[in-house]
């Protein structure tokens, strides 16, 4: 009888592990979005109430909760940076995120001003619709 229990236990564990791995893959896919990013000159305060800091690795997004961490990858050169959402925007049509100057420098988009990016939530409760192909 003990042999049967241990085989069932081992089989049950394998199913749990596989299910957990599938769940993580779906979450990662659902948390990525592609679109255009820009960088912006700073005012005095962010929408979250923080003092603006052009060197900070931060960004503005229309709907992600403040504090959400997002990896932003420049699709033209493969460089990426993790930023924290602390402001609202962008307010220019066709753009999905506005980066601080410091974050834009990290992914090499200062001169172009706009870049096609892939955003992936890496921390916090924010969710993005999956639209990258």
UniProtKB/TrEMBL annotation:
Q: Where is the signal peptide?
A: 1-30
Boundaries of each RlpA-like protein double-psi beta-barrel domain copy?
33-118
The protein's UniProt keywords, in alphabetical order, are: Cell wall biogenesis/degradation, Lipoprotein, Lyase, Signal
Q: Which GO terms describe its biological process?
A: cell wall organization; peptidoglycan metabolic process
Highest taxon listed in the record's lineage: Bacteria
Query: What's the protein called, per UniProt?
Result: Endolytic peptidoglycan transglycosylase RlpA
- Write out the transmembrane intervals: none
Q: What Gene3D superfamilies is this protein classified in?
A: RlpA-like domain
EC number, UniProt record:
4.2.2.-
What Gene Ontology terms describe what this protein does at the molecular function level? lytic endotransglycosylase activity
| Family named by the database record | Belongs to the RlpA family.
**Native species:** Bauldia litoralis
Cite the NCBIfam families for this sequence: rlpA
A Pfam family this chain is assigned to: DPBB_1
Gene that this polypeptide is encoded by = rlpA
InterPro entries xrefs: RlpA, RlpA-like_DPBB, RlpA-like_sf, RplA
* Protein purpose: Lytic transglycosylase with a strong preference for naked glycan strands that lack stem peptides.
């Amino acid at each position: 009888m003990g042999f049967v229990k241990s085989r069932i236990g081992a089989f049950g564990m394998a199913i749990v592990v596989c299910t957990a791995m599938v769940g993580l893959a779906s979450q990662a896919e659902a948390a990525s979005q592609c679109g255009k990013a820009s960088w912006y000159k700073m005012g005095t305060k962010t929408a979250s109430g923080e003092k603006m800091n052009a060197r900070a690795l931060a960004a503005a997004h229309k709907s992600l909760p403040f504090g959400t961490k997002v990896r932003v990858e420049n699709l033209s050169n493969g460089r990426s940076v993790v930023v924290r959402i602390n402001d609202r925007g962008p307010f220019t049509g066709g753009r999905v995120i506005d980066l601080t100057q410091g974050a834009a420098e990290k992914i090499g988009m200062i001169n172009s001003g706009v870049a096609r990016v892939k955003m992936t939530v890496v921390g916090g409760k924010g969710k993005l619709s999956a639209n990258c192909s």
